[in-house]
Amino acid sequence: MSKAQIEIDHIGIAVESLDTSYPFWKAIGFNEDKNPEVVSDQKVKVGMLALANNANIELLEATQADSPIAKFISKRGPGIHHICLRVKDIHKILNQLKALGIKLINESPVKGAHNCLVAFIHPSSTGGVLVELSQKQNSKDVL
Ligand code: ZN
Fold it and tell me: Which domains, and CATH codes, for the chain?
């Protein structure tokens, strides 16, 4: 079987609060993200915990009551929110998925944390898992 040239970028975990989440992660050897990024479009504060294999645990704290993360937590409680796959050409993949009738939350990429272009795929098309695609954005790229 051939392998797809796709890597896990991060696993997103919805948390009530970054501060109360850190003790566990620090206890097993992660360093606290001292500079969590606020992604205002998504109404979240993002704490990244770097894994050794170039992937991350992404802790997501809602910054507003109508944030998707706040809604997720009120419906299902804290927990794994999404899995993010790192892709090379997000536009191309989104077009392929669209052509196949896959239900997309973002028909076009939006700005994510850490200067990435991201798009979410609806869980109804993925077996119940919210999947995020992410492409590292070059500074010269324009949305
Ligand atoms: Zn994410």
Answer: 7-136 (3.10.180.10)
